[in-house]
Design a protein that fits this description.
The chain is α+β, with helices and mostly antiparallel strands. The chain contains seven helices and nine strands; from the N terminus they run αααββαβββαβββααβ.
């Protein structure tokens, strides 16, 4: 499935040269026995206002100045996603991909992903998002590229990764791997975090009945926005809010000491599925 699938892991750029680049990229992936979805392609021109909530919502004006949003992320931090399919968290490890972790941190801190659609969901491959709900924001980030990081982790199930359109072209689009996509490891796709615990149960619920067709329609989604999404791809799920939580949150949670006489039982830990 990875051959065509890898094609749209790159961002759409809308030119003949881009089409040649995508076709060339696909040739490096494993040939599938059945036609496969393309690699998550990242694009940064967005839907105007996902649904009624986004129609009245406002965005952080700081997002219009990407060059100023370059804060270094903590060594590890967690991000909570509240979606139309339920909530899940992602743990980011900066050492895995420092520039990617920093970019994600700044995007989430300023709520770039709020009200955005999960516009591409390919069963057994990836869920992709990162086109802003607000066209001015999308336009501002279109050329805000960051350099590639050296890959230290494989594209395993549950990992989150930036989409690209070639070397040093990461901007805002991301995908979460539904399975171990090791064929992406040599193609510049660098994981920087992983979905925690049973969070993949929610991720795998994202509406997938459009197959790869909505994902291939990025250019229209970017240029025509939420009105187009609502008419053409109305069932796509929405990220209602993405926020930094835990130790990296703006206001760390207070820890209440437990009575010494009655220590609480140890909580069961859940290992992230990969």
């Amino acid at each position: 499935m990875e051959a065509n699938a890898t094609m749209r892991l790159t961002k759409s750029v809308g030119t003949a040269a881009a089409a040649l680049l995508l076709a060339a990229t696909a040739s490096f992936s494993q040939a599938p026995t059945t036609p496969a979805p393309a690699k998550p392609k990242s694009s940064t021109a967005s839907a105007a206002k996902p649904a009624a909530s986004a129609a009245t919502a406002t965005y952080d004006r700081a997002l219009l100045k990407p060059a100023l949003l370059k804060e270094q992320a903590p060594e590890t931090y967690q991000v909570q996603f509240e979606t139309t399919r339920g909530d899940f968290t992602i743990t980011v490890t900066r050492a895995w991909s420092p520039l990617g972790a920093d970019r994600f941190y700044n995007l989430v801190k300023h709520h770039y992903f709020d009200n955005a659609r999960v516009f591409r969901v390919v069963p057994g491959f990836v869920a992709q998002f990162g086109i802003s709900a607000y066209p001015p924001v999308t336009k501002a980030w279109r050329d805000a590229k960051i350099k590639d990081d050296s890959r230290s982790q494989s594209n395993k199930r549950g990992t989150i990764v930036f989409a690209t359109s070639g070397p040093n072209t990461r901007t805002t689009q991301l995908f979460i791997n539904f399975k171990d996509n090791s064929s992406l490891d040599t193609m510049g796709f660098t994981p920087f975090g992983i979905v925690d615990g049973d969070g993949m149960n929610r991720v795998e619920m994202f509406y997938d009945q459009y197959g790869d067709t909505a994902g291939m329609d990025q250019e229209n989604i970017e240029t025509q926005g939420e009105k187009y999404l609502a008419a053409k791809w109305p069932k796509l799920d929405t990220i209602k809010r993405a926020s930094i939580i835990g130790a990296a949150a703006n206001t760390p949670a207070k820890v209440t000491p437990k009575p010494a006489a009655k220590p609480a039982p140890k909580p069961t830990t859940t290992t992230p599925k990969q």
